[in-house]
Amino acid sequence: MPEPKVLVVDGYNVINHLPDLKPASVDHLENARLRLALRVSAWGRLHPAAECLIIFDGDRKIACGGGQILAGVRCIFTRQAHGGDEEIIRQVREFRLKKRLVIVVSDDNQVANNCRAHGAIIETAQFLAAPKASLSRGSAKSGPGDKRIDARTAARINKEMAEVFGRKA
Fold first, then answer.
1. b/e per residue, 5-15, with b = 16+ CB within 10 A?
2. pTM, two decimal places
3. Domain locations along the chain
4. pLDDT recorded at residue 144
5. Deepest of 44, 65, 120, 169, by most Cβ within 10 A of its Cβ?
6. Which DSSP string corresponds to 71-88?
7. 53 has which bridge partners?
8. How many other C-beta atoms are found inside a 10 Å radius of the C-beta of residue 74?
9. CB atoms within 10 A of CB 77
10. Coil, helix or strand for 12?
């Protein structure tokens, strides 16, 4: 029986990395969020066994620490302006404890390294630019330009960076 799957999207990170979603090219941020949700929803229809989740950094106007449904996709708005990264990592830990295969879509190195350390597959924002992308384990192309690292290396890098910036790892 295949492992249950979940797609976790770093909302504003993806919006700012896909030119057709950037708020400057659409009416405003709310419209950009809806366009992203529509794209994730379309991707989810191509992969009906996968649960899809978008996480947005909080905004005092809409942040409630809870969620809402946009285009049929569950969206979580964190309570803090920069709480999305931590929420993504927390969600990945919880899904992995439940033995779920997790794919995280983010171009943020901290998010990618931490989620990879917890066993998630990491994809860039471009993953959502091609909605027919495969969801199977090892689906991402690897080759000479592959920048993937193992969990041990990611943990070592995070620890070293925490020491450089005076934070706890």
1. bbbbbbbbbbb
2. 0.74
3. 5-165
4. 38
5. 120
6. TTEEEEE-SSTT-HHHHH
7. 8, 74
8. 15
9. 23
10. helix
Q: What's the order of all strands across the beta sheet hosting 50-56?
A: 67-70, 73-77, 50-56, 5-10, 101-105, 121-123
Is residue 5 classed as helix, strand or coil in its secondary structure?
A: strand
Closest CA to 128 of 63, 58, 73, 169: 73
Structure tokens at 166: 């005076």
Alpha helices in 47-125 (DSSP H): 84-97, 109-117
User: What CA–CA distance (Å, rounded) separates 118 from 102?
Assistant: 10
R_g (Cα) of the chain, nearest Å = 16
Give the amino acid at 28: H
In this structure, CATH architecture of domain 5-165: 3-Layer(aba) Sandwich (3.40)
What's the residue count for the chain?
169
Q: Which amino acid is at 45?
A: R
pLDDT along the chain (169 residues), means of 10: 85 93 75 93 91 85 67 90 88 95 97 96 91 47 48 73 65
Q: Are 51 and 45 in contact (CB under 8 A)?
A: no
Ramachandran bin of 138, using left for φ above 0, alpha for ψ from -120 to 50, beta for the remaining angles: left
- Report pLDDT for 142: 38
